C-alpha cells in the first residue's frame, strides 16, 4: 500500500490496472482453476517459522463489522483503517502469516465476481474485499468484485486477518489533524509509513517543457521528470536516512501546510499534497490574476518558503 483512501461501509475502487487481471470484469470465481504457487507457500512458511521475515500485507473488506482495513508494512508498523498506527507483536504477525497459509491464500483466484449479465449496461468495476501480499520478492492479490459470484473463502480470510489486528487499534497512535500528525511524525511517534508527500511542478500549458514529480512514501524519496500525457523518464528513488527524513518533515511542518489556502499564487504551475494517516492537504498554485494581490501576504510567504524547501530537497544530490 501504500499507500490508501479509506471509505466507510464499502470500497468503491475503479480498478484501472487491476481490471486487467480481472479480464475487464469477465473473470468469475473458479474459471480455469487456480494453481497454488509453491514459491509463495515456501516464503510464507519461512517468514512464519523462524524468524518472522518482512512482508507487506493489505487487507480491506466490507462485512457485518462495516468497512475495515489493515496495512502491515515490512518494518512491522501497521495502520488500522488508515487512522491508527499500531505495532504488531510477533505473535500477531505469526498468526497473520499462519492464517494466510491455513486458509489457502496462495491458491485463491486473482479476482472473483464482476461478470455482467447479457445486455446489461457496462458498469465500473468495484472492489468490495481484497487481500494483497508482497513477500520475499513475490506478489499476489485476490479481490472480490461487486456483483457476480462471491467468494466465501476470500471473505473469511479477510475477516480473520482483520479480527486478529482489531483489538490492537484501541491503543494505536492517531493524529487529531494534519498539523498534529506532522508533529508526531517529526518527533518519531508516528512512523515514516504514515507520511506522504507529492510535489508536482507542471510545465506551462501548451509548451514542450518538462516538469517533475517529487514523492515521499514509506520513507523513500523519488523524483521523476513529468509532462502531462507523455512519459519522459523513469523515477529515481533513494531511501531517506532517519535524520534526513526528520529534517524534511520538520521543514514542511514549519510552514503549516494545513493552514494554507487550497489555491495559491505562483509564477509556475505547482501542486503540493501532504498526508499523515487520513489527514491530507492539497494545494494548487498558478499565476492566478485574482490572487496577485496576496503575493506579499503572510500565507503566500509561507507557501513560497515551503516551495523553496521542496525544491532544495528535490535538487539535492541524494534525491
Total domains, how many? 2
Order of helices and strands: HHEEEEHEEEHHEEEEHEEEH
What does the overall shape look like? globular
Spatial order of the strands in the main sheet?
A: 4-3-2-1-6-7-5
Mean pLDDT: 84
DSSP helix fraction: 25-40%
Distance between the termini: 22 Å
Largest sheet properties: 7 strands, mixed
Short description:
With 319 residues, the chain is of the alpha+beta class. 26% of the residues lie in helices and 28% in strands.
Q: Can you tell me about this structure?
A:
The chain has 319 residues and is of the alpha+beta class. It folds into two domains: 17-171, no CATH class; 178-315, Mago nashi (Mago nashi protein, 2-Layer Sandwich), CATH 3.30.1560.10. Helices cover 26% and strands 28% of the residues. The strands form two sheets. Strands 4-3-2-1-6-7-5 form a seven-stranded mixed sheet, covered by helices on one side. A seven-stranded mixed sheet has the order 11-10-9-8-13-14-12, with helices on one face. A hairpin with an 8-residue loop joins strand 8 and strand 9. Helix 3 packs antiparallel against helix 4. It is globular, with a radius of gyration of 22 Å. It starts with 16 loop residues before the first helix and ends with a helix. The model is unreliable at 1-32 (pLDDT under 50).
Blueprint (SSEs and pairs):
Blueprint: H1 17-21, H2 38-49, E1 55-63, E2 66-72, E3 77-80, E4 84-87, H3 90-102, E5 111-112, E6 127-135, E7 138-145, H4 152-165, H5 178-186, E8 195-202, E9 211-217, E10 220-226, E11 236-239, H6 242-254, E12 263-265, E13 269-276, E14 279-286, H7 298-315
Parallel strand pairs: 5-7, 12-14
Antiparallel strand pairs: 1-2, 1-6, 2-3, 3-4, 6-7, 8-9, 8-13, 9-10, 10-11, 13-14
